[in-house]
């Protein structure tokens, strides 16, 4: 693995793009093969029935959630370990309105597996969005598209002719739904938190943002490598059961908009100013704009503080560390990994 050392975080040595190896079946191999062959047709039937028939019928939110839980239960995803910051076990009912995402709130979720989107849809019935590191705008995607994106190649920029919008507009258009954002923009193996997209910076100041971390046991049902459908299905269907560890942090607010939108100091317009003063200000403004474009994001310190706060919360919830890697590094890793696999 030395040839992939450049895709490890320099500070911690964490490699968030490598697939997690599966434990050998050993003597249980015949049993695992039986489970896989028994569950595969059932899962395909349930998935195709929902996405091609049931989701288009007027079965209501409860009917859709029941169908999604049937999909989750088919491969043995029965155990959900849920913990919420500031809530003791057994006392969730008293804090339901304030500690859990509600319609009109934003969910900033980790992204390691297609199960992430499936679980969030079964619990919160949200709107899913796709984020990119090159823009603050997002575009709305369906649940099926969210599942497929977990196996897709990382994208630095949106596809051509994509209908982009900010989170504030999306919440105004759908006030009775929560909105899910995957700020890492691409999947990992769950061992680190990637650099964030700036899409969360377009959230309204009074809208709650809930960081949610999802981790799996066993951890081999993650999909950090694009196109890993066969390995994912085998790991998912051949094990007797799986556990999802769900952690929800306290909500945060986007308090950066006022600071980021602060007007630049204006030069006095009168006898005390001259053409050279105005020219100097214009040159400084142009230099700042150029510097921001060269740095790639132009994120103000207050905005960076908000992104860091959410990223730190996801790292704490998942008991992992933040890494200095992002979508660009994963794109390079995927190309190197694909070349090695073809040899």
Report the count of strand segments: 9
Q: Oligomerization state of this entry? A: single chain
The run of helices and strands is HHEHEHEEHHEEEHEHHHEH
Number of helices: 11
Strand content: 5-15%
Shape summary: globular
Radius of gyration: 23 Å
| Helix content class | 25-40%
Structural class, please? alpha/beta
First-to-last CA distance: 15 Å
Mean pLDDT, all residues: 86
Sheet with the most strands?
Answer: 7 strands, mixed
Side by side, the strands of the main sheet go: 1-8-7-2-5-3-4
Low-confidence stretches: 260-296
Plain-language structure description:
The protein has about 350 residues and is α/β, with parallel strands linked by helices. The chain is built from 11 helices and 9 strands. The strands form 2 sheets. A 7-stranded mixed beta sheet has the order 1-8-7-2-5-3-4, with helices on both faces. A two-stranded parallel sheet has the order 6-9. About 40% of the residues lie in helices and about 15% in strands. The longest helix has 24 residues, at about 30-50. The two termini are about 15 Å apart. Mean pLDDT is about 85; it is low at about 260-295.
């Amino acid at each position: 693995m030395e040839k992939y050392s450049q895709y490890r975080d320099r500070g911690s040595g964490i490699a968030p793009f490598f697939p997690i190896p599966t434990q050998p079946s050993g003597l249980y191999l015949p049993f695992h093969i039986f489970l896989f062959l028994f569950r595969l047709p059932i899962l395909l039937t349930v998935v195709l029935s929902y996405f091609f028939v049931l989701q288009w019928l007027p079965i209501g939110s409860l009917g859709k959630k029941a169908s999604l839980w049937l999909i989750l239960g088919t491969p043995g995803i029965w155990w959900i370990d849920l913990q919420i910051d500031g809530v003791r076990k057994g006392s969730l009912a008293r804090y339901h309105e304030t500690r859990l995402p509600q319609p009109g709130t934003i969910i900033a979720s980790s992204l390691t597996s297609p199960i992430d989107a499936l679980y969030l849809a079964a619990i919160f019935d949200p709107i899913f969005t796709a984020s990119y590191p090159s823009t603050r705008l997002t575009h709305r995607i369906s649940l099926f598209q969210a599942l497929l994106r977990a196996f897709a190649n990382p994208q630095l920029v949106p596809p051509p002719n994509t209908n982009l919008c900010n989170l504030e507009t999306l919440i105004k258009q759908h006030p009775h739904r929560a909105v899910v954002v995957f700020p890492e923009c691409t999947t990992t193996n769950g061992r680190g938190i990637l650099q964030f997209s700036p899409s969360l910076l377009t959230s309204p100041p009074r809208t709650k943002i809930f960081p949610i971390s999802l981790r799996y046991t066993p951890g081999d049902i993650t999909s950090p490598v694009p196109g890993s459908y066969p390995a994912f299905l085998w790991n998912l269907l051949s094990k007797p059961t799986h556990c999802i560890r769900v952690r929800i942090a306290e909500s945060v607010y986007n308090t950066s908009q006022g600071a980021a939108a602060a007007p630049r100091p204006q030069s006095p317009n009168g006898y005390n100013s001259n053409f050279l003063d105005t020219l100097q200000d214009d040159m400084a403004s142009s230099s700042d704009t150029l510097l921001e474009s060269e740095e790639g994001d132009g994120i103000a310190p207050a905005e960076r503080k908000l992104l860091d706060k959410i990223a730190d919360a996801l790292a704490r919830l998942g008991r992992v560390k933040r890494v200095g890697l992002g979508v660009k590094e994963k794109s390079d890793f995927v190309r190197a990994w694909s070349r090695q696999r073809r040899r």
